[in-house]
Amino acid sequence: MRAEACDLPIRFDQVCVSAGAVTILDSVTLQIEAGAPTVIVGPNGCGKTTFLRASMGLIAPTRGRITWAGADRSPSIRRAFVFQRPTMLRRTAAGNVRYALRTTGFPGAQRDARIEELLALVGLDGLGRRPARRLSGGEQQRLALARALARDPAVLFLDEPTASLDPAATKAVEDVIRAVSSSGIKVVMSTHDLAEARRIAGEILLLHRGRIVERAAAAQFLGSPRTNEARSFIAGELLV
């Protein structure tokens, strides 16, 4: 699996997203490029999920502009999104992946082999006939990753993919993320866990009150933060 870097770079130019009188993203300007995973951290309510949804094209800016490889509108066929609490279809694990392949127009004669490949990639080989809703939470999250990868994405957005998982399930999901990134797919994910950011990130963005207050390579962000907000966040202090 090696996706072309179409849709990249994703550029935000003074992007604001509001809900009524509440500003969720505030004058965000940045560019997301191919390479190692970009990990977004920050306190609850800082705008991480909204940032990911806007990057995917699921919501439009209230003000400002988002472009994908220079285009204002780009079909999201090579972008995929895994939600924090993905919904499993009332089908087997294999049936969930089959449905995703069908929506992409993947050739029917090749679907069985592709399903096996995707389930093996996420560590679910041998579980294809099991009802998806009877899988454990970690297995369901990995199945959601398999469904997303059925789109053969160039960019994969993950919204806190290991939230509420135990350490073993977290490791299994992180292993998949690393494999996906190594294959050439750009991963953009949020997490509440700085240790996870340390394990996965190539670069880290800190969001606070809808603004990007620091962006740096992971080692620099964690070892030599430049802003008071980053220093406080790394120290475990509350950002208010």
Structural account:
The chain has helices at 48-56, 93-104, 111-121, 137-149, 167-182, 194-200, 218-223, 228-234, and strands at residues 10-19, 22-32, 38-41, 63-68, 79-82, 155-159, 186-190, 203-208, 211-217. With 240 residues, it is an alpha/beta fold. It has a single domain, classed as Rossmann fold, CATH 3.40.50. The strands form 2 sheets. The chain has a 6-stranded mixed sheet with strand order 5-6-7-3-8-9, with helices on both faces. A 3-stranded antiparallel sheet has the order 2-1-4, covered by helices on one side. Strand 6, helix 5 (167-182) and strand 7 (186-190) form a beta-alpha-beta unit. Helix 4 runs parallel beside helix 5. The model has no long low-confidence stretch (mean pLDDT 94).
> Spans with pLDDT under 50 lasting ≥5 residues?
none
Biggest sheet character: 6 strands, mixed
Counted by DSSP, the helix tally is 8
Shape descriptor: globular
- Average pLDDT for all residues: 94
Extended strand count? 9
Structural class label? alpha/beta
How would you concisely characterize the structure shown here?
The protein has helices at 48-56, 93-104, 111-121, 137-149, 167-182, 194-200, 218-223, 228-234, and strands at residues 10-19, 22-32, 38-41, 63-68, 79-82, 155-159, 186-190, 203-208, 211-217. With 240 residues, it is an alpha/beta fold.
